[in-house]
C-alpha cells in the first residue's frame, strides 16, 4: 500500500476514533447544551473522516469504499494516536482530551491547506473552519473548569495530568509520514511541536492549572500498537458490518 | 476548479427552487448557496453540490431531493459533491437571510462580530422574535452544527443563530 494512503489514515483515523468516543456521549452529556455540542463536534469529525476515506478508497481502487476502510480493518491497521482512544472517564477527561487534540488538529490542517495535493488541501480548507469552533469550545471549557470550583479544578487537573503522556506522540513521524513530507505533500508535524506546547501551556496557566512536567511519554498508536481501550471501541464501531456484512441503511 | 460565483443554467432554476434545505425548509438550495454548478450536458443535468459542514447529514437528503425533482420533470441527473472552494455563509442570498429570520433563525454576523458574540463578550445578535439585541449565548452549538443557541433577555425566547463560516 502506498505512503499517501497510510498518511491519510494517520490523519483520518484520529478523527474517526475521536468521533466514535464523542458519539458515545450522545444522550449522556452532562447537560443538554454540552451533549449537543459534543455530538456536533463528533459529526464534524466524522464528516472530515469520510472525505479522507473517500480519497483513500480511490487510491486503493479495487472497488473499495470508505466503509471498507472505516469498518473492516483489524486493530493493528488503525493508525490513530493513543490520545483519541482514551475513555470518557469524566467530563474533565472529555474536555481535556478534546482540547489537547484540537490545538494539534488545528495546527495540522492549517498547514495542510497549503498542500500541493488538491484533495488534501480542499479537505483541510473545509475542515479548518469547523476545527476553529471545536478549539474555541474545548478551550473555553478547560478555562471554565480549571478556574471554576475547587472540585472542577481538581478534576480538570487530574485529566490533564493523565492525558499529558499521550501528547508527545502527536509529533512523532511514521515512515510513511516522512516519505509524504519528503514529497512536499504532507505536513511535518514535528515542526509545530514547540508552538503546540506553548499555546497549550498558556491556556492551562490562564485556567489556573499546573502544566505537567512529566518526562515519560508513551506512543504506539500511530504504528498500530494501541492501548487496551481500542479493541472495545472497534467491537462497537464494527459490530454492524461484521454481523451483517455489506448491510446498508 | 470552481470559482466563487456559481455557474447555473437559467432554465434549471425553476426546478432548483423547489428543492429546499431539509433542516431550514424555508430556504431553497439556491438561496443557501450550496449549488455551485448546474448545467445540462447531452440531456443530463450535472450538479455540483458543496456541503455547508463536512458532516452535514442534510447533504445526502438534498442530493436525493435534487435527483427526484429533476426526474419528476423527466430529466436525468448526476450530483457530485465538491469541497473546494469551501462553502461560506456569504453565499446565502439576502432573500434567503430574510426568510431565515422570519423563520426564527438569526442571521450570521460578520466574522469579527461572530467571534465577539460566541466568546460571550458582546450583545449583538438580534432576536428574530422581538428584534432586541439584548440576547446572550447559551451554547456555541445549537440544533445543528451550523447554528449556536441563544436566548433573548427581553422576550425570553430561546432561538438559533446561524454561525458565520468563512
UniProtKB/TrEMBL annotation, chain A:
Keyword Oxidoreductase found: yes
Listed GO biological process terms: phenylacetate catabolic process
Keyword list, A-Z: Oxidoreductase
GO cellular component: cytosol
E.C. designation(s): 1.14.13.149
EC class: oxidoreductase
GO-annotated molecular function: phenylacetyl-CoA 1,2-epoxidase activity
Taxonomy, superkingdom: Bacteria
Protein name according to UniProt: Phenylacetate-CoA oxygenase subunit PaaC
UniProtKB/TrEMBL annotation, chain B:
All residue ranges annotated as the PaaD zinc beta ribbon domain in the record: 113-163
Domain of life the protein comes from: Bacteria
Matching InterPro entries: Fe-S_Maturation_MIP18, FSCA_dom_sf, MIP18-like, PaaD-like, Zn_ribbon_PaaD
Domain MIP18 family-like: 14-80
PANTHER family: 1,2-PHENYLACETYL-COA EPOXIDASE, SUBUNIT D-RELATED (PTHR42831:SF3), FE-S PROTEIN MATURATION AUXILIARY FACTOR YITW (PTHR42831)
NCBIfam families tied to this protein: PA_CoA_Oxy4
Protein name: Phenylacetate-CoA oxygenase subunit PaaJ
Species of the source: Aequorivita xiaoshiensis
Amino acid at each position: 500500500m502506498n505512503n499517501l494512503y497510510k498518511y491519510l489514515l494517520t490523519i483520518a483515523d484520529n478523527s474517526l476514533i475521536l468521533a466514535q468516543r464523542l458519539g458515545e456521549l450522545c444522550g449522556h452529556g452532562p447537560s443538554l447544551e454540552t451533549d449537543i455540542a459534543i455530538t456536533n463536534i463528533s459529526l464534524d469529525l466524522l464528516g472530515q473522516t469520510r472525505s479522507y476515506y473517500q480519497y483513500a478508497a480511490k487510491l486503493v481502487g479495487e472497488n473499495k469504499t470508505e466503509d471498507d476502510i472505516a469498518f473492516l480493518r483489524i486493530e493493528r491497521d488503525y493508525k490513530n494516536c493513543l490520545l483519541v482512544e482514551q475513555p470518557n472517564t469524566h467530563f474533565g477527561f472529555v474536555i481535556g482530551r478534546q482540547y489537547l487534540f484540537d490545538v494539534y488538529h488545528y495546527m495540522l490542517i492549517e498547514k495542510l491547506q497549503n498542500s500541493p495535493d488538491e484533495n488534501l488541501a480542499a479537505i483541510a480548507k473545509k475542515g479548518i473552519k469547523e476545527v476553529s469552533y471545536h478549539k474555541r469550545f474545548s478551550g473555553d471549557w478547560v478555562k471554565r473548569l480549571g478556574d471554576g470550583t475547587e472540585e472542577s479544578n481538581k478534576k480538570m487537573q487530574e485529566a490533564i495530568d493523565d492525558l499529558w503522556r499521550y501528547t508527545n506522540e502527536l509529533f512523532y513521524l511514521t515512515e510513511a509520514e516522512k516519505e509524504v513530507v519528503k514529497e512536499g505533500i504532507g505536513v511535518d508535524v514535528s515542526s509545530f511541536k514547540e508552538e503546540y506546547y506553548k499555546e497549550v501551556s498558556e491556556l492551562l496557566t490562564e485556567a489556573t492549572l499546573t502544566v505537567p512536567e512529566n518526562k515519560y511519554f508513551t506512543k504506539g498508536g500511530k504504528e498500530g500498537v494501541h492501548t487496551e481501550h481500542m479493541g472495545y471501541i472497534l467491537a462497537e464501531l464494527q459490530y454492524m458490518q461484521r454481523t451483517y456484512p455489506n448491510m446498508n441503511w | 476548479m470552481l470559482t466563487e460565483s456559481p455557474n447555473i443554467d437559467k432554465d434549471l432554476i425553476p426546478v432548483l427552487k423547489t428543492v429546499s434545505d431539509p433542516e431550514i425548509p424555508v430556504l431553497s438550495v439556491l438561496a443557501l448557496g450550496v449549488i455551485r454548478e448546474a448545467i445540462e450536458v447531452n440531456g443530463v443535468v450535472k450538479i455540483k453540490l458543496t456541503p455547508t459542514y463536512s458532516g452535514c447529514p442534510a447533504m445526502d437528503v438534498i442530493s436525493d431531493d435534487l435527483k427526484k425533482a429533476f426526474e419528476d420533470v423527466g430529466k436525468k441527473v448526476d450530483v457530485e459533491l465538491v469541497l473546494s472552494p469551501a462553502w461560506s455563509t456569504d453565499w446565502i442570498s439576502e432573500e434567503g437571510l430574510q426568510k431565515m429570520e422570519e423563520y426564527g433563525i438569526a442571521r450570521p454576523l460578520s466574522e469579527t462580530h461572530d467571534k465577539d458574540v460566541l466568546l460571550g463578550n458582546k450583545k449583538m445578535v438580534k432576536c428574530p422574535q422581538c428584534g432586541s439585541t439584548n440576547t446572550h449565548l447559551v451554547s456555541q452549538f445549537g440544533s445543528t452544527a451550523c447554528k449556536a443557541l441563544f436566548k433573548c433577555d427581553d422576550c425570553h425566547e430561546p432561538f438559533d443563530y446561524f454561525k458565520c463560516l468563512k
